[in-house]
């Protein structure tokens, strides 16, 4: 039997039943990577010798009666996580030889849960793109269409899962970096509530792995089924043992509902700042129809929803002000000159991004206060609704675009070009307030490309969108292997 595309849950059952060993699963995954990854280029740093040793250890542990959550399951890890013995580069050429001394906290948790780490997956330069390519490891291709991107920055992990290179992966998300690759590659991913999952050891090299509380970015699980997301999130969740973990543990509340008919859902397909392409619109409506057919209360409008335009601008301000924090002084001064030349009437997203790059601390405090007001609005919203269904990006996976001047790049939405980074407005809807969001596949576009949507839930109620994802997987189907 071929185990390649089985879920982690299915593989665990087979391991327990003695139908397969971890060594066999690991060898099969390695064989597939060696055969198929030349065309995909998802695995940038293989670790096959240690993986085989870990698989042998897992089989011995199971024979002793151990039953850890991921015991013997082959997985991959995004390149941005420190893994002792393998380079951490973030795609930065100057860091190609950087070797961390210890594992990131999430790699340690994977290993403690019994997972077999096959290697690390490719990322864009500095994790700062919606594609996955860099000078060190080259370009990762979408398994559905090699001329298209798998997304970024967790594009290598998404491509690996869609190709059958392991059952699970861990990635990260600041600008949709879990959700967009899931959407482009037809898999599942979960952006946890900000602060729920410790991120120590996921740090740009050669900086030290300190237990820093990140403002927007999160670490999160990726899988080929919704239930596997929950399985992996339970391994990942919890505070850093060096800081908050000294004082408390995490116990997530249960999902608000178990039946689809009990969910109250707001469905959004339009954004005031950017059109939604027809393929993604169709995916949103497939989910809306499934919800209605299942008896859920589905609404298309709510006065409780925070203003989408202000939310997008706030998100861009947070994102772009943080992105230039370490720019050289000369480049920062050039940005100040450009920002000063903007017309006071220019309220475009591009203008908001440029102004944010030269924010003062006073500006930062002001937008932080506005974000707290939005979080208050979200709490009121989630008193009446359980989830929001909306796009992740306005299109399916787009063709590779390596233009070094990102300001010249464009995204084609049904034949009309739009600024490249404008497509981040949907990702920011959950990121800016720190809400959990689960990406699920909805079926292919007319061109045969995967289309996904995100299910946004209440803060720290991550099990609610995850449970809704499970129910929708049963209703509309889930992962399909690339043809």
Automatic annotation (TrEMBL):
Origin: domain of life: Bacteria
Signal peptide: none
Keyword flag Hydrolase: yes
EC number: 3.5.1.4
Protein keywords: Hydrolase
UniProt GO MF annotations: amidase activity
Protein name: Amidase
